[in-house]
Amino acid sequence: MTSATIINIQKYSIHDGPGIRTTVFFKGCPLNCWWCHNPESQNPSPEIMFFKEKCTGCGSCFKRCPAKAIEFVDRYPLTYESKCTLCGKCSDFCLSNARELVGKAITVKDLMSEIIKDEVFYEESNGGVTFSGGEPLMHADYLYNVLKICNDKGIHTTVDTSGYAAWEQFEKIVDKVDLFLFDIKHMNNEKHLKYTGVGNIVILENLKKLSQKGSNIYIRLPLIAGINDSYENIDDTVNFLSKLNIIHVNLLPYHKMGMDKYRRLNMEYKLSGMEKPRDEVIDKIAEKFRKAGIKIIIGG
């Protein structure tokens, strides 16, 4: 695979692995988590994101759309997805930047040209490049090719993954990855299926195998009040992780930062009104991990 659909190449990241990093966000994810703060990463295809508050109703998008997929309803443009070809002309000519084409096919060569621009920062901070998403392993062949070049250039590599992929996909890249950021959503398979759209059996098995191979692993555990912050689920998580070789666990309390993106993508946000877990609950959860000898970092 010579190209992949990428949402963003974020420079100077400090929360996606050690040091200063470039984070590459792939488009497409097999999960549909209720709390996802990057909903634009779920659909593997490019999408139009509409910022209604920026729209002046000038009509440029309507005039420039070659597929005639846009009509004006109550002074605002309405896009008919069945007609839209995602050519991007409506966003190119939007005078107020109210329309954004999310997702662009980028070749391995072009991606690497962006990554190597910041080599000096990687060297000075012991940083590198992180591949996130979405789910990077949906692009395993492309990812392998980029990882190989990074390895050859001595650039530290991190893959941020949901863990939901065939083990064969992990096998393609495991020897090229310096660090995995591995998500654990819920230990109960049925609840995992309900809240993410997939079960967790494959995910947990892949984590076991990565641990057995001696991979460097940070666990990322989102904390969603009333969904996965029960002491029963936390005890099950601690028991499972205590048998594995991991470096630490990042506890990631729920936040609403991605909520508005759902409206811009005309998607339903299922956790409206949800608040982050109380501080005392987070502290008690953290203490459970510490008592089991597992290093905890809150946030990150």
Main attributes of the structure:
300 residues, 31% helix, TIM Barrel
What does this structure look like?
By secondary structure, this protein is of the alpha/beta class. The chain has two domains: 237 residues, Aldolase class I (TIM Barrel), CATH 3.20.20.70; 55 residues, Alpha-Beta Plaits (2-Layer Sandwich). It is 31% helix and 23% strand. The strands form three sheets. Strands 7-1-2-8-9-10-11-12-13 form a nine-stranded mixed beta sheet. It has a two-stranded antiparallel ribbon with strand order 3-6. It is globular. It starts with a strand and ends with a strand. The relative contact order is 0.14. The model has no long low-confidence stretch (mean pLDDT 94).
End-to-end Cα distance: 32 Å
Biggest beta-sheet profile? 9 strands, mixed
Please state roughly what percent of the residues sit in beta strands, choosing from under 5%, 5-15%, 15-25%, 25-35%, 35-45% or over 45%.
15-25%
> What's the overall geometry?
globular
What is the count of structural domains? 2
Strand order of the largest sheet: 7-1-2-8-9-10-11-12-13
Number of strands: 13
Helical coverage, percent range:
25-40%
SSE class? alpha/beta
Ranges where pLDDT stays below 50 over 5 or more residues in a row are: none
Number of helices: 11
Work out the radius of gyration: 20 Å
CATH architecture of the largest domain: Alpha-Beta Barrel
Q: Give the class-level CATH name of the largest domain.
A: Alpha Beta
User: Looking at CATH, which topology of the largest domain would you report?
Assistant: TIM Barrel
* SSE ordering: EEEHEEHEEHHEHEHEHHEHEHHE
Specify the CATH homologous superfamily of the largest domain: Aldolase class I
